[in-house]
Design brief:
This protein is an alpha/beta fold and 330 residues long. Helix content is 40%, strand content 17%. Helix 4 links the parallel strand 5 and strand 6. Bound molecules: ligand IDC.
């Protein structure tokens, strides 16, 4: 073969290798980058303006159950449960919370968030970084820490098209929308300094239920959504009415946490009401994230308390709620 002939074959081999690596990202080191999503009207859409319904599961508190933040679990849930999103619930106050524990604990939690984002990224999942306020009912209680945390997160993940920031899980204890709004404004500004267009989820008054109040005076800015949380054992048609009101007013909603037990995370399951909720969400293309990926002995845990595996679960490893949710995700 002459010189030109050799060059031709070498180029052909290179081209074939390139095409192969594009066609089969799983074979390469990194999964294909997920398209950035943005908010259009009340919906989350992809780069072609097509509505996308995110669906997935939330971890329990990262300090309680760090073992479920692993690549195998995330990849397994994507392949077998058909989730496209995972939520990393980082409590701020309870049980080695980010704001109540010491500096070493904060480091540990930041590492878990980072492990979670990496695992989600290589599994091809969207990932929500959740600042999980709860007993610290007013988001302003730990505002300073929230600003420092999200500044760091936005710097770390500004190039991750799959990262979504949730800035206050469930304001409660009388925290009003105007208070939450002030807090949100500051945190959003901080995130936007680094990450111009990531989707940001804002909690609403009364454990993220009073979306109608947020609808009366929404925040300014793009790619913002408002969270609606429900537990079908406690919350029924009256809460869907609130949600419908908010949608009618043009408020983009995101269900970043839900269950079909009662609001305590325990008690019997209400599958009938749960089914009604999911039809409502499907009809409106609203994202839904089920609480919680753990084997804690409570009815809102997706795994049986006897399940020790941290990935590759069989149906018999799942709780009744786990089986129900996996059925709906498929
Ligand atoms: C619950 C957990 C439970 C934990 C408790 C801490 O299921 O194991 O002991 O938090 O206070 C929420 C919260 C979420 C709750 C869940 C169930 O966002 O943190 O988890 N819930 O009570 N809002 C409504 C229900």
């Amino acid at each position: 073969m002459n010189k030109n002939g050799k060059r031709f074959w070498r180029r052909l081999v290179c081209l074939a290798a390139l095409l192969l690596s594009l066609a089969a990202p799983g074979m390469g080191v990194q999964a294909a980058k997920l398209p950035a999503l943005h908010v259009q009207g009340t919906k989350l859409v992809n780069e072609n303006g097509k509505a996308v319904q995110l669906k997935g599961v939330s971890t329990h508190g990262l300090s309680w159950y760090p073992q479920y933040v692993n690549q195998k679990a995330f990849a397994y849930m994507k392949k077998n449960w058909h989730i496209n999103t995972v939520r990393l619930a980082m409590y701020t106050a309870e049980y080695n919370g980010y704001c109540t524990g010491d500096a070493a604990n904060r480091k540990k939690l930041e590492k878990l968030v980072d492990d979670g984002v990496r695992a989600a990224t290589s599994a091809g999942l969207y990932v929500i970084i959740d600042w999980h306020i709860l007993s610290d009912g007013n988001p302003q209680t730990h505002e300073k820490q929230a600003l420092a945390f999200f500044k760091k997160m936005a710097a770390n993940y500004k190039n991750n098209t799959n990262v979504i920031y949730e800035i206050c899980n469930e304001p409660n204890g009388g925290a009003s929308w105007s208070t939450i709004r002030k807090y949100a404004d500051k945190v959003i500004k901080t995130i936007r300094k680094k990450d111009k267009d990531a989707v940001i989820l804002v909690g609403t008054p009364n454990w993220s239920q009073d979306v109608d109040e947020a609808a009366r005076n929404p925040l300014k800015g793009k790619n913002l959504m408002y969270t609606l949380h429900f537990y079908a054992g406690t919350h029924g048609a009256w809460l869907r009415d609130k949600a419908q009101k908010a949608l009618d007013a043009g408020l983009p909603l995101f269900v970043s946490e839900f269950g079909i037990s009662d609001a305590s995370g325990n008690g019997g399951l209400n599958k009938t009401e749960g089914g009604k909720w999911l039809s409502f969400l499907k009809k409106n293309k609203i994202a839904f994230i089920g609480w919680n990926l753990s084997n804690k002995g409570e009815s809102s845990a997706l795994l049986k308390s006897s399940t020790q595996k941290t990935s590759d679960w069989k149906s018999s490893d799942l709780s009744e709620w786990g089986k129900w949710l996996v059925g709906k995700l498929k």
